Amino acid sequence: MTPPPVWSGSPLTAPPARLRRAALIAVATVFGLVLVGFVLRFTNLDAAASTAIHHLRRGVLAPLAEALYLALKPVPAALLMLVSTAAVAGLTRSWRQALVFLGTIALTWGSAEAIKLVVDRPRPGLSEAAMATVGKAVDASFPSGHVAFTAAFVVTCAYLAWGTRWRAFVIAPGALLVACMVAAVVIEGVHYLGDALASLVWVAGVFPVARGLCAVAVARADAEMRRRRSRQVV
């Protein structure tokens, strides 16, 4: 008989409540944002606002936006995710929490990147100054992968720290980091404003089911490992 899954006390690895409801919200989010993405692709309703924000690229804002954008490009972001996973495993002494941490971020971020292939919205185009610094983006624009990764990373860290005294030290700086990334991708001209805001909606709608699925998968894997160990002992 397979032992039942063991759930830890962490909100990150807690058993998902109303997983079916979370899945329905995630599906609605996917279809809703795909529809919005196609509307923005063919109308560019957010072009004027994006251009106005892009014109802020001067003075101290330019190097700050460039640094933030470059720091969380896909490869550095993936490395940050892996290093953070190792840190979570070391600090919590729980491989289960580390795997849920890794899986939740990867699933939330990766699914946002996949939607780019569906919507295929062209990039807004970079200014000469921005292109020389951050390089030309060749993939689609909607939604913003930078913002999706940052928001997914911050929310996952917040869940991990929720029941600890470190909660405030994660949530406040994390929210500021997400806001700065939203501004950075538009200031640099690599995304329209709608791309960045869509990523926030994406994470809000997809994160709960991503976390729930990862928590269930890891708990079941743990139960299976305990079952096999118990058989070996017998």
Walk me through the structure.
The protein contains nine helices and no strands. It has 234 residues and is mainly α. Helix 3 (61-71) packs across helix 8. The radius of gyration is 20 Å and the shape is globular.
List keywords for this structure.
0% strand; mainly alpha; single chain; 234 residues
Summed up:
By secondary structure, this protein is mainly α. It has 9 helices and no strands. It is 74% helix and 0% strand.
What structural class is derived from the secondary structure elements? Answer: mainly alpha
The amount of helix comes to: over 70%
Rg is 20 Å
**Average pLDDT:** 85
Q: Which spans have pLDDT < 50 for at least 5 consecutive residues?
A: none
Note the total helix count: 9
The largest sheet is: none
Beta-strand level of the residues, as a percent range? under 5%
Helix and strand string, N-terminal first? HHHHHHHHH
Shape: globular
Q: Quick one: how many beta strands?
A: 0
How far apart lie the N and C ends?
13 Å
What are the SSEs and their pairings?
Blueprint (H helix, E strand, L loop, with lengths): L18 H25 L3 H8 L6 H11 L2 H19 L2 H25 L8 H7 L10 H17 L5 H21 L5 H41 L1
Helix pairs in contact: 1-9, 3-8, 4-5, 5-7, 5-9, 7-8, 7-9
